[in-house]
Each structure stands twice: as C-alpha cells, then as structure tokens.
Specification:
Helices cover 41% and strands 18% of the residues. With 282 residues, the protein is of the alpha/beta class. The chain has a seven-stranded mixed sheet, sandwiched between helices. It is globular.
Length: 282
C-alpha cells in the first residue's frame, strides 16, 4: 500500500543533499541536474503568470504548502510578501534552513493545517496534492480554502495525466470541481509543461522497451540514475537516452510559448489553476 510519508522520507534521506538548488528531492530525483533545472524554469514561468492573477500586495500573507527545500519560499521572499512554508518531511525543512532560507517553516501535514481560519491572502501548492491519495485530496483542498480569507486566492500546479505508484492525477475539470466543492471559484487555468517533442520521444522509447520485453519507466520520477545527476550514467544506453532527451527537451522548451497558445491545455502533463475564495455575499 502506498504511504506518502514513507515515500517522501525515503526521497529526503536519499536525495536531499544531491544538488545545490535542492531540486532533486522535489522534482525528478533520479534525473540529471540539467533536466530538473529545465523543469524548474518552466514551472517558474507558469508560477509568475498565475500570480499575476492573484494581485498580491506588498506584505501579503502567503502559505506555501509542501514547501520542500524552499525553492518557492525564496521566490516569495523576493516579492516582499510574508511567506510561511509547511512540509511534513522534516529532512526537507532542514535542507531549506541549511540553505539559508529566512522564511519561517512548520512541520505539519497538508491534511490538517495548523492555522486559524482565514489568515492567508494566498495559499500556494506546486505539485503537492498530486502525491496525496485521491480519497484525501478533496479534504486537503478544503483545508487550504479554510485558511484563506474571503477573496483570497489558491494557486495550484498539479498533474493532470500520467501514471505512477505515488502520483494521483485528476483531469482539469475534476480539479476544478473539487475546488468548487470547497467554496472556491475558478479565476484561470492553463496547461503547464507541454514539452511535446520530449513527450513523443519518451513514449517512443517506452514503446520500444515494451515491444522488447523491457520494463517501462515510470513517468514520475525518472528512475534509474544517480542522485541529482551528480554521477555519470550507469550505462551507455542511459547516457544515450539522456543525451537524446536533452535535445528533445531543448527544442520542446523553445517551442513551449507557441504550443501553450495554440494547443489545448489538456495536452500538457500539468496544469496551473488559480481559484478565489468566495466571500460571504457570493
């Protein structure tokens, strides 16, 4: 049976010191460092577009749920807002503090946030709820809505398709309906992380492995490598795979702005959602 606590404890103990940016334990633990840097760059662009919809003022109160090693908290600090991080894995928080993070952090579960009702202007969640079992996801979003003040915003970046033992995606409409049941109205959503050529390449490799009787790699994380890409690949085949994928990712990233404007959001692997908590008169 899947245990989110066991999974993240294992990831933290194995990868939390794998790279200077702290990307490995919160993105794709076994992928090369360049891949996680690419994913982080794409996520940050989507994050900034989404935050424009939230209209945060200086000094706004922000909660980053599942803050991990603190990559989003550092960016919130640069925006001059009052940010607090929360994560259930203490090794992640230790890494964040050791990396010089100045924002306060709390060790707690997303299923039961240790805050009063209506205290935050923004609650932020980047690829966190997708790792919580489907039966608990609705309750987590209700908790996020609870700590928002009326008119405050919830920012979600979550998986909308994929497979894996520790990921539980929903389609966009399902994410929206789940948030609506928590008293949140949709402000905006868009597909995030299309990387179309890279998707085609990975699926082709998986199909060939399947045809040859090999085990298909899980979509998330990219299994099989050294922590954070710090060591050389274990085989020539893996080196060739990641070498070719580096090209497919670079071309895909270059085309991403056009793809985002012209293709359905459901073609992406993730989506960004911005919700607003309804006021008492809504």
């Amino acid at each position: 049976m899947y245990s989110w606590k066991e999974y993240w404890d294992n990831v933290a103990s194995a990868y939390v010191g794998a790279d200077a940016q702290g990307f490995a334990p919160v993105l794709h633990p076994d992928a090369p460092a360049w891949f996680n840097i690419t994913i982080d760059r794409l996520q940050e662009k989507s994050w900034r577009r989404g935050l424009q919809r939230c209209r945060l003022s200086k000094g706004a109160r922000v909660l980053d749920v599942g803050c991990g090693t603190g990559r989003w908290l550092r960016r919130y600090q640069q925006m001059q807002v009052r940010a607090v991080g929360l994560d259930a894995t203490q090794d992640m928080l230790r890494r964040a503090i050791a990396g010089g993070l100045e924002a306060p952090v709390v060790a707690s579960r997303a299923q039961r946030l240790p805050f009063s009702d209506g205290v935050f202007d923004l609650v932020s969640d980047v690829t966190v709820v997708q790792h919580i079992s489907s039966r608990e996801q609705g309750g987590v979003i209700q908790e996020m809505a609870r700590v928002l003040h009326p008119g405050g915003h919830l920012f979600l970046m979550e998986l909308i398709r994929g497979e894996g033992q520790h990921i539980f995606p929903r389609n966009p409409q399902n994410w929206i309906e789940t948030a609506a049941s928590a008293g949140l109205r949709l402000v905006h959503w868009e597909g995030q992380e299309f990387l179309l050529l890279d998707q085609v390449f990975v699926r082709a490799v998986q199909a060939m492995r399947g045809a040859g009787g090999g085990k298909q790699a899980a979509t998330l994380p990219a299994h099989g490598g050294a922590p954070g890409g710090q060591a050389k690949p274990r085989s020539g085949g893996r080196a060739t795979y990641w070498g070719m994928r580096r090209v497919s990712c670079k071309v895909s990233e270059w085309a991403e702005p056009l793809v985002r404007k012209t293709c359905p959001g459901t073609w992406a692997t993730h989506a960004v959602f911005v919700f607003q908590k309804r006021g008492e008169t809504d």
